[in-house]
Write a structure and sequence with these properties.
The chain has 412 residues and is an alpha/beta fold. Helix content is 38%, strand content 17%.
Length: 412
């Protein structure tokens, strides 16, 4: 069914566009509750990829022929779409990368190598995905700086008093997620950024888990860097974006060298292309950008505030439904969380839980979720996680609860 009005939203409208949601797994209709790991793709994205490879496949920027111009236009249209999504001041403040992990590594290796020195500190919240911890450890070791963790409160919120106490003249960067992939916590990024700036520190925000759930405005947040991965926002894998304030990006040197990122090369001297191209060495993931463009056009065809309200109601419903199960414990209770529920079930290992649910066609994640410090805050090494998106429904939550209840009954 075609949308008759721009900006309307219902989960059924979204579901009609997602082919994989109409398949069966182990004889049951698929219930995809592993959106924190990756989101499913609408037909508009799949068709855009197919159309590019079938009729427009070309390298970009350097070609004078028709297809090169067409591919370049689509690629740069994708950059403009990302800038609009993030509320960035201009498309040139957006760099295409493989995903959040590469974006953070780029900042660490480019900005970090030039701005970190002995005794400097990088504050990193205990909520973080490993991709927002390990690159800082690596550059800190090289530059003789140090990574300082910001602790959590029992409910999974960042301890703001501890954060304020940790900030000092030594702080050069604060790294924090816009939404936790384990606890769903949404930190007060705007306020934390303002406090960091009072100490002349830069702030990098990992938006991988936030971007699909609610509108983002990097200028309102005043973030120096903001990153996200396309596959977490209904786009293909292998594509993502880094936003940086224009004045910060201008001052960063290239991380990788090669074609496309230069103006002139000679054995005596090489000059680099202007931003953002100096950070995009080699042939980029052109099809990925085109798929990302289609995904963002699809997502923004819905009323984003309506999506956020629906997901808030859905996570509230899911939380209440899961708490009816004896011996099930949900990690974290921070208010305003995104649609992530990580839990344990007494007597059952997370992998066993995931395997049981898979028999009923229900896909969740089990393990440490690449966020071991956050789990260890609760004395755990692994847990089960159900993560929801705009196309999930209360009926699917009921199926999850029903299957978990049957699992409990097998051991009583």
């Amino acid at each position: 069914m075609a949308r008759s009005q721009h900006g309307v939203f219902s989960p059924d409208m979204a579901r009609q566009d997602i082919p994989v949601l109409h398949r069966t797994v182990n004889g049951h209709p698929l219930v995809w509750l592993d959106n924190g790991a990756t989101t499913q793709k609408p037909r508009q994205v799949i068709e855009a990829l197919s159309a590019y490879y079938a009729g427009a496949n070309s390298n970009i920027h350097r070609g004078a022929h028709t297809m090169a111009r067409e591919a370049t236009d689509l690629y740069e249209e994708g950059r403009a779409a990302v800038a609009r999504l993030l509320g960035a001041p201009a498309p040139d403040s957006v760099v295409f990368v493989r995903g959040t992990t590469e974006a953070i590594n780029l900042v660490a290796q480019s900005w970090g190598r030039d701005n970190l020195g002995p005794g400097d500190e990088i504050l990193v919240s205990a909520l973080e995905h490993h991709s927002n911890i390990v690159p800082w450890q690596q550059i800190a070791k090289e530059r003789r700086a140090r990574v300082v963790p910001i602790p959590l409160l029992p409910d999974g919120q960042i301890d703001q008093h501890a954060y304020a106490d940790l900030l000092s003249f030594r702080t050069q960067l604060v790294a924090l997620s816009h939404a936790s992939n384990v606890l769903g916590t949404v930190p007060p990024v705007r306020e934390m950024t303002a406090l960091a700036h009072r100490h002349s520190a830069k702030v990098l925000v990992d938006g991988a888990q936030a971007i699909a759930h609610f509108p983002v405005d990097v200028q309102d947040l005043d973030a120096d860097f903001y990153t996200f991965s396309g596959h977490k926002v209904f786009a293909p894998t292998g594509i993502g974006a880094l936003y940086a304030k224009p004045e910060v990006l201008q001052g960063m040197r290239p991380w990788q060298g090669g074609g496309n990122m230069i103006e002139s090369v000679d054995f005596g001297r090489t000059t680099y292309a202007p931003v953002p191209h100096r950070f995009e060495a080699g042939t980029g993931h052109i099809a990925g950008v085109i798929g990302l463009l289609a995904a963002l056009n699809w997502l923004t065809s819905f009323d984003r505030e309506a999506v956020a309200t629906y997901e808030a109601d859905l996570i509230s419903y899911a939380q209440q439904a899961l708490t009816t199960l004896p011996s099930l414990e949900i990690l974290g209770s921070a208010p305003g969380r995104v649609a992530v529920l990580t839990f344990t079930l007494a007597g059952h290992h997370p992998t066993e839980i995931a395997d049981w649910l898979d028999r009923d066609g229900i896909a969740i994640r089990a393990g440490h979720h690449c966020a071991q410090p956050a789990l260890r805050h609760y004395g755990l090494e692994d847990a089960a996680r159900a993560s929801l998106a705009l196309y999930n429904t209360p009926q699917e939550v009921d199926q999850l609860v029903h299957s978990l209840r049957r699992l409990q009954q097998t051991t009583t």
